[in-house]
Amino acid sequence: METINDILNPYSELETNIRGLMTQLFSETCGLCTACCCRADICEEARDSAFLAKLLERQGLKAADMDERYGWLDLHGCSLEYGRPPICYEFFCDELLARLSDEEARLAARVLGKLMDHVGQRALGGWHLVEVMEDSDLAKVDLGGLEQRLEEARAAYDVIRHYLESGRLGAADRKILAAIKLDEV
């Protein structure tokens, strides 16, 4: 990887895949929700972050396209294919977690929700990739670390996708998932 632009495609592919699994798992519950956690102020990060703004541009969007009242939300939820703030994947209300069959399924969901956050951690010093607000600072991002965390996230995604198909997590799978640190609640 030579520049930050080289990460755009693999990052957006991973995010699109994660969004697909999240939809598979939770669209029935989220589609009926009347107290959604999605708010326009959260959407602002996609507009303000230099990296997420690059992902918006890839979709033919500009920061000015964001609705000040509704953000990127429409009648079907978030209209962004990718480039969402990581928090959009991380938050699970109690009802979402309760609908999952057991602790293993809840672990898989929590790790899935943490993957985009994991990729961007410590991208520039202590800053997360989406906290980099100046385009010129993107040239200073630790691309090697970013690439490593992207590979860890891809491996975890593959484990979770396989788990959802098979219903089984082996010891090697758990080791891959353990690379993604979950915040203690």
Topology:
Blueprint: H1 5-32, H2 40-48, H3 50-58, E1 73-74, E2 77-78, H4 87-90, H5 94-98, H6 103-120, H7 143-166, H8 171-178
Antiparallel strand pairs: 1-2
Helix pairs in contact: 1-6, 1-7, 2-3, 6-7
Strand elements, count: 2
Task: Tell me what portion of residues adopts beta-strand conformation.
Answer: under 5%
Cα distance spanning the termini: 35 Å
Gyration radius over CA: 16 Å
Estimate the helix proportion, in percent: 55-70%
Strand-pairing-aware structural class: mainly alpha
Domain module tally: 1
Strand order of the largest sheet: 1-2
Uncertain residue segments: none
What does the overall shape look like? globular
- Main β-sheet, in a few words? 2 strands, antiparallel
The arrangement of helices and strands along the chain is HHHEEHHHHH
Q: Count of helices?
A: 8
Mean pLDDT: 88
